[in-house]
Amino acid sequence: MNTKTIKVGIMSLSEYKARTIAIAKGEYRPMSDEPKVWFESIKSMAQILSSENQELLKTILQKSPKSLKELEELTGRAKSNLSRTLKTLERYGIVELHKENNALVPEVKATHFQVEFGVNAA
């Protein structure tokens, strides 16, 4: 099994917007080792990487379902719930969904997470 670690960061929305604007203006250039995925809070990260979602990722890794229908049967979760969760995980680069034989097939892209954050006293 191929494992990939992604670095995630935690930054307030206002800080993230300021950072994005500075990058767009050329005033700030992100370092190659900076997080590529950002969460607004530890709470929002915990919701995405919840125990339930970690179990979902393990099921995908272990069983390699060939469709959302198969994943629904393996997990007992409703297809609409799975679809919404997988699309959210895909937005964060944790899962990739691709079409095979007219079915959406989930693939886990990240299995390990390195979290980076600090407290600014500005």
Q: Please, could you describe this protein's structure?
A:
This protein is elongated. With 122 residues, it is an alpha/beta fold. The mean pLDDT is 91. It has helices at 13-24, 42-48, 51-63, 68-75, 79-91; strands spanning 5-10, 37-39, 95-100, 103-108, 112-116. The strands form two sheets. The chain has a three-stranded parallel beta sheet with strand order 2-1-5. A two-stranded antiparallel sheet has the order 3-4. It is built from five helices and five strands. The longest helix has 13 residues, at 51-63. The N and C termini lie far apart (44 Å). The protein has one domain: Winged helix-like DNA-binding domain superfamily/Winged helix DNA-binding domain (Arc Repressor Mutant, subunit A, Orthogonal Bundle), CATH 1.10.10. Helix 1 (13-24) links the parallel strand 1 and strand 2.
How would you summarize the topology of this molecule?
Blueprint: E1 5-10, H1 13-24, E2 37-39, H2 42-48, H3 51-63, H4 68-75, H5 79-91, E3 95-100, E4 103-108, E5 112-116
Parallel strand pairs: 1-2, 1-5
Antiparallel strand pairs: 3-4
Which key phrases capture this entry?
21% strand; Arc Repressor Mutant, subunit A; 122 residues; two-stranded antiparallel sheet; alpha/beta
Task: Work out the strand percent.
Answer: 15-25%
Largest sheet at a glance? 3 strands, parallel
CATH domain class = Mainly Alpha
Structural class: alpha/beta
Q: Which CATH-level-2 architecture?
A: Orthogonal Bundle
Overall, the morphology is elongated
In quaternary terms, these chains amount to single chain
Ends: how far apart? Answer: 44 Å
How many helical stretches? 5
